[in-house]
Amino acid sequence: MDLILWRHADAQDDEADMSRALTAKGRKQAQQIAAWLHARLPETTRILVSPAVRALQTADALELAYEVVANIAPGAVGVQVLSEAGWPDAHGTVLIVGHQPTLGDAASLLLFGETSTLSIKKGGLLWLTNRVRGSQPQTILKAAMSPELT
Length: 150
What we know:
alpha/beta
């Protein structure tokens, strides 16, 4: 399966956490990454989004249907994200739009076998996949993208 971990874009700091909206910079970041994803996402991609306004607005830039998942809201842990995505057994591609440090924890679990201080830049993403070589399961980093690189 492919798993894409997309951190919400830049958001305002002056509101309650769940209702923080994207800034003008954040809207631009979301559009940049959405354009990059549109050229690469399979049509059958399952998109799961945190219920926080900033994550919803980031996902809206894709203009694709998505599911709102309470278990990936701010404060979730990386294992919850992986469980919601169905890692490693789900088929196809799953895109998660969420938060730090949760997404970084999920990525570090997959890449290093433990949680660490792996950070994904605002609006950025990591695209991971899995495979088995011999009898050894492997996690592969397919792409790392930030809005500045689009």
